Amino acid sequence: MTVTDLPDLLDTVDTFYGPSVVVGKLFPLTGPCPNHCGECDQCARSKYYTPRNMEMLHTQARANSYYWRTDVEEGYGTFTKQLPAIADSQPQEWMSRFVHCFDDIADRIENGEVPYPRCTGEEMALHLILDDCAEILALGDSAYEYLIAQELDTVLPHHPDDGDTESLRDVMFEDHDVLMLFNPAFDTTDTNPAAAMLGRCNLEPDTWFLPFRPEEPV
To answer: Is 218 a member of any domain?
Structure first.
C-alpha cells in the first residue's frame, strides 16, 4: 500500500458503510485517575485511547472488514493468508464469522467503548488492525492524515502518544497467546505435543468466537 492508495481505500469504505462517524469525539482527552496508577482504564484512556488513536482504529477496522469480506466472498485468499496456518482448512462460514470481528470492533468504538477483545477471533482481528495501522503510519504524516481523515486534523486534539500502535498493543490485550498460532509448532492439533494447550486457551478454530466472559457476548 502507498500513500496514493489511501484516498481510494477511504472512498471505498465510505461507499460501503456510509459517511464515517467521527468516533474520535467520543474519546475526549482526560487526565489519569487520582492515584495515577497507570494501570486502570482511566489511566489508559488518558494516555493511549486518544481521539486520534480511536479514529485510526475505527477507520482501519472498517477498511479491513470491507476488503476481507470481499476476499472471502470472492475466494481470492489474498487477505486470509495473513491468518495462522491452523485456519487454512476452515470453511467460508468460519472465515465470514472472523471478518465480522472487524465490524464488532468498529461498532464498539462507535458506541464510545474501548474495543477490548471479547474472544480469540477479536484478538486476532485487533492484532491485524494494529499491524495495518503501523504499516500505514510508516508511510509518513500524510498517511496518518488519511487514517483519521484530513478534514478532522483541526477537529481532533493532538496527543504525544497518537499513532503509538505498540503501546496500544500492550494495553488492549490481557495476553498475546493468540500470536503463538503463528509458531509452526501449532500448525496441527492431532499428534503435536504443543496442541494440548490450544483448547485451554481458546485457540482451536472452533473456539475462536466463544466469549471469554459470559457477561460480554460476541
So the answer is: no
